[in-house]
Amino acid sequence: MRALVAVALGLAACVLVIRGCDRDAADVPPAAGSDANASRSEARVAARAQAQAEAEAALRARHDAAMRAAVSTLHRYLAQLPEDHAAADAFWIDGAPTVDADEAGLRELSGPPRRLRTRNRSPHVLDGDPVPSSVRIPVELRIGVGDAPVHRYSGWYELRYVPAQEAWRITGAAVDPVLPPQ
User: Fold this and answer.
1) Less Cβ crowding at N or C end of the chain, within 10 Å?
2) 156, 165, 171, 177: which is closest to 97 by C-alpha?
3) What domains are defined for the chain?
4) What domain of life is recorded for the organism (predicted)?
5) Run of H or E including 96
6) How many other CB atoms sit within 10 Å of the CB of residue 138?
């Protein structure tokens, strides 16, 4: 009987050994540290994705801030233009409008505006930088000075960011009067 038990145990051991060699990689339980390795790898991927999302958000915020600063500069210029030409000139890249700048009589208006309405559309980026340094801003203006009727204008201004001055400066303009409807 002992011999029979020994043979049965031997056969069982052989079956287990053979069966162990027959397993797929999927049947093999993971090594003790592989769950931890997978978790660390997933954490690194998540951290990289988070860092990239934060960098993109920061870049977008800088882009939006640059656009707002350019529009704000233009609005400050237009508010100064009829009342104080010298103060308005300081907004230009070289301290005065360029020779080819066309502001269609805006500079002929003189005195404090009794009515000024500026409406601009979204600036167009003129360079390929993620944070723009050159833009064109389409505008529509209504300006009334003194007893004169309200004048309407439409066109655009181009502005460039000047890092040395940490400011946006006007580099060009094309503004035409809008004729009243007939």
Assistant:
1) C
2) 171
3) 61-177 (3.10.450.50)
4) Bacteria
5) none
6) 14
